[in-house]
Amino acid sequence: MIASAIGARRRHLARAAVDTRPWPSLPDGTMAVEMPLLGKGVTNATIVRLMKRLGDPVQVGDVAAEVSTDKVDTEIPATTAGTVAAVFVRDGDDVPVGFPLLAVSPSAVLPHLADDPPSAWESG
User: Fold this and answer.
1) DSSP string across 12-45
2) Contact 27/112 with Cβ under 8 angstroms?
3) Are 105 and 82 in contact, with CB atoms under 8 Å apart?
4) What is the pLDDT of residue 108?
5) Across the chain, where does the E strand assignment appear?
6) Nearest-5° angle of CA 60, CA 49, CA 21?
7) Separation between Cα atoms, residue 85 and residue 45, nearest integer Å
8) Beta pairing partners, 96
9) What is the C-alpha R_g of the chain?
10) Residue pLDDT, tens place only, 30-46
11) By three-state DSSP, how is residue 124 classified?
C-alpha cells in the first residue's frame, strides 16, 4: 500500500514537472510534428537524437527524432511533408506527449527567415 502511494506521488510529480514546460506557438501556415503517445502510462520521452534541422526537407514517414522512455526506445516519424520551419527541442530534452518537436511548412519558402535569424527558430 505504501509503495503504491509513493509510486503514485512520483507519477504525479513527474506529470506536474512536464506540464510546466512552455508550449511554443507554431509559425503561421505550418503543421507540427508532435511527440506521440508511446504507451499506456507514458507521459514523456527524452530526445536521443533529432534527425531534422531547420530548412531540411521532410516527407511523411521520415524519421524526425529518436526518443527513449523507461519502456521503449523508438523513432518518431514525420506526420506532414514540407520544409522544417522551426525546431522546438534539442537532444537530451525531456518532452511531454503532444509537445511539438518541429514545425513543417508545406512550401520550401520560409518567409519568416528573411526577417529573423535561424537561431531565433532553431534551439539545437
Assistant:
1) HHHHHHHHTSPPPPPPTT-EEEEPPP-STT--EE
2) yes
3) yes
4) 63
5) 31-34, 44-50, 57-58, 63-68, 73-77, 82-87, 94-96, 100-105
6) 90
7) 23
8) 44
9) 16
10) 899 999 998 888 899 99
11) coil
Using CB atoms within 10 Å of the CB of residue 20, give its burial: 0 to 12 exposed, 13 to 18 middle, 19+ buried: exposed
Instruction: Please name which of 124, 110, 123 lies closest in space to residue 55, comparing C-alpha atoms.
Output: 110
Q: Which residues share a beta bridge with 31? A: 104
Distance from the first to the final alpha carbon of the chain: 44
Query: Which residue, chain included where needed, has cell 519558402?
Result: 109
* Cβ–Cβ under 8 Å, residues 35 and 9: no
The answer to whether the beta carbons of residues 37 and 17 sit under 8 Å apart is no
Residue range 57-71: mean pLDDT, rounded: 93
